[in-house]
Design brief:
Structural class: alpha/beta
Order of helices and strands: EEEHEEHEHHHEHEHEEHEEHEH
Radius of gyration: 20 Å
Strand content: 25-35%
Low-confidence stretches: none
């Protein structure tokens, strides 16, 4: 289980990245959503013992992330958003170095590396220097590391950024098969809908909503989105949410769309989630 109690982080320049964040999650996949600067990466870094909180408490699998950081680190794998591969090292070499550093024997590391590189579609380039690979393939190396680690909890900060739709779907398929519990951050709404058991919506360091996607969308049950009219403003765009019957009056005059997870951001914050 992952739990936070009044967790806060204030940086030296006074920026409040997290503001009394409290939640419990005991499922398999939790996704953190929010605009740039909402606090997603800060929360992941704290939970994965890379960053100390200013105040509050946090626990991963029952261990205090500050007082028992070494125990937490043995249970987890964390792949940060800014991770970059070593230019001359191949995908296969990356996995071997990573897994042996995690305590795997060379034989175990090689077996896991072969299996996972095939699963994520990197097998054909397994021996190529990473600086010869596309940005999407470089990102896949880190996804492969997380998958091969067999950690109890895996933290993935925007794991599919830079991947084309086919590769993204390929990675989703592998993530679904993982036995590890996962905490993801993403800007892709369809990714959250595809993978998450629960989502947490962060805005300016605070949790503004938490729950399963169906439960969060209940408040918009029976509604559709109409673009071009309404009180909600996003830049020059006006948006309204109306009953499906009423929407018939707007078809042909305005853009009418079904409700998606993105609409939660419009309802809760009045702002559209920025594109990744």
């Amino acid at each position: 289980m992952i739990e936070t109690i009044n967790l806060s982080k204030v940086y030296k320049d006074g920026t409040v990245a997290l503001d009394n964040v409290s939640f419990k999650f005991a499922g398999k996949v939790l996704t953190l959503l929010g605009r740039n600067g909402a606090g997603k990466t800060t929360l992941v870094r704290i939970l994965s013992t890379q960053l100390l909180p200013t105040s509050g408490e946090a626990y991963v699998e029952g261990f205090d992330i500050v007082k028992e950081a070494k125990k937490v680190r043995k249970l987890i794998t964390s792949i940060p958003q800014e991770a970059q591969p070593i230019g001359m090292a191949s995908p296969f070499e990356h996995l071997i170095m990573f897994l042996t550093a995690k305590g795997f024997s060379l034989k175990e590391a090689e077996e896991n590396a072969r299996k996972v590189l095939k699963e994520v579609g990197l097998w054909e380039v397994k021996d190529k220097p990473s600086d010869e690979l596309s940005g999407g393939m470089k990102r896949k190396i880190f996804v492969a590391m997380a998958l091969a680690s067999n950690s109890e909890v895996v933290f993935l900060d925007e794991p599919t950024t830079g991947l084309d739709p086919y590769s993204r779907t390929e990675v989703w398929s592998v993530l679904k098969s993982m036995k590890s519990k996962m905490v993801l951050t993403t800007h892709y709404m369809e990714e959250a809908e595809e993978l998450s058991e629960e989502v947490i919506l962060l805005h300016k360091g605070k949790i503004i909503a938490k729950g399963t996607i169906p439960s969060l969308l209940e408040k918009l049950n029976g509604k559709v989105r109409v673009e071009g009219i309404g009180d909600i403003k996003i830049g020059r765009l006006r948006i309204s949410y109306v009953d499906k019957e009423e929407a018939k009056n707007y078809v042909g005059k305005y853009i009418v769309k079904p409700i998606t997870l993105e609409d939660l951001f419009i309802i809760y914050t009045g702002e559209r989630l920025e594109e990744s």
